[in-house]
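Re-run with default settings, no changes from the original entry. Doing this only to confirm the output is reproducible before filing.
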Amino acid sequence: MPQKTKWAWLTATFFGTGYLKPGPGTWGSVATVALWLLINRAFPESPFHATLHTILAAILVTAIGIPAATRVARESGAPASEKNDPQIVVIDEVAGQLIALTLCPADWKHALLALVLFRLFDIAKPPPIRQLEKLPEGAGIMLDDVAAGLYALFVFQVIHIWF
């Protein structure tokens, strides 16, 4: 097995969250929601600033996550069937979950809805999400979850506005 690139493994597994079982992707999403809630509670800001900071965090996580996921996929020694998206890589869930949380009020009930919606779209992968997985390496790993986050954000907003 090739030598592990420490920054990439730390990033791609979201500080080891990707090693949790069962369902490392769900653990990555739960960790993201918990961290997001803690930050929003510790540093309360206007909804505009909270949204702006969440968008910036999602962009940063995606930008760093693509090369990190690429490197970990190459170095993982995973079988070919799993090499396109190793289960331990959860930085994609972090990015997608942040997108789903973008316009979410900072309370646990709304955050739970954003979590459930994101995981639903991430697992079901409605079109064109599944097609995005076919992009090469880290782009395919990350962008399907970005799309699932956008779907979840849209449905969250419809529910939030109507109910």
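The mean pLDDT is 94. The radius of gyration is 15 Å.
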